[in-house]
DNA sequence: GCGACAG
DNA sequence: ATCTTGTCGC
């Protein structure tokens, strides 16, 4: 099992970013997608111990039937720092990944992929760490702005542009709801990423794998709280 | 110096 | 990210 060493300080994480970002593959390098997974983390608002509860939920890509889930809790890592989210969440996420009953062909990560100032959002870091295709699905913008109009119609899209480059796509998955921001994580092109996010939707704002992972991560946190009481 | 800032 | 009831709207 190839283990990766994660930086312990923000400074070390920043130094490592260019090297890791260079490993990201922004093109389609994936086989048939039969199973997918959602990945998310849950933390406490104010927590000096910096505990992160992570969860991954695997599902059948076609029927969206859940196939299993796993969680992991890590403490003492980095705090939340914009731009360094991956270094905080990927260690517990990678452990959760190893607890899944199956190895998913594709992972939807809660947060950005290449739509990041140094091209290393949490989805990219998880992808290169596990060497699994990943897609970033974020609920708000980290950098860049939407180019053009985004009609209030389900399916509407508009490029997310930063420094004259398209780094992702704003996608309105539901009428009357704010868009989600889709970007390449690893081994998936942006058009393919968009297609999968749409295919894995269920008429709600967030795609099903992401939604289930969010609920699972919350359960991991509540279970940890109950266990320590 | 000021404002922005995934989760 | 999390704390939370009722409430507005299709």
UniProtKB/TrEMBL annotation:
<feature type="site" description="Interaction with target DNA">
    <location>
        <position position="80"/>
    </location>
</feature>
<keyword id="KW-0460">Magnesium</keyword>
<keyword id="KW-0540">Nuclease</keyword>
<comment type="function">
    <text>DNA repair enzyme involved in the repair of deaminated bases. Selectively cleaves double-stranded DNA at the second phosphodiester bond 3' to a deoxyinosine leaving behind the intact lesion on the nicked DNA.</text>
</comment>
<keyword id="KW-0227">DNA damage</keyword>
<keyword id="KW-0963">Cytoplasm</keyword>
<keyword id="KW-0255">Endonuclease</keyword>
<dbReference type="GO" id="GO:0004519">
    <property type="term" value="F:endonuclease activity"/>
</dbReference>
<feature type="binding site">
    <location>
        <position position="40"/>
    </location>
    <ligand>
        <name>Mg(2+)</name>
    </ligand>
</feature>
<feature type="binding site">
    <location>
        <position position="110"/>
    </location>
    <ligand>
        <name>Mg(2+)</name>
    </ligand>
</feature>
<comment type="similarity">
    <text>Belongs to the endonuclease V family.</text>
</comment>
<keyword id="KW-0234">DNA repair</keyword>
<dbReference type="InterPro" id="IPR007581">
    <property type="entry name" value="Endonuclease-V"/>
</dbReference>
<protein>
    <recommendedName>
        <fullName>Endonuclease V</fullName>
        <ecNumber>3.1.21.7</ecNumber>
    </recommendedName>
</protein>
<keyword id="KW-0479">Metal-binding</keyword>
<dbReference type="Pfam" id="PF04493">
    <property type="entry name" value="Endonuclease_5"/>
</dbReference>
<keyword id="KW-0378">Hydrolase</keyword>
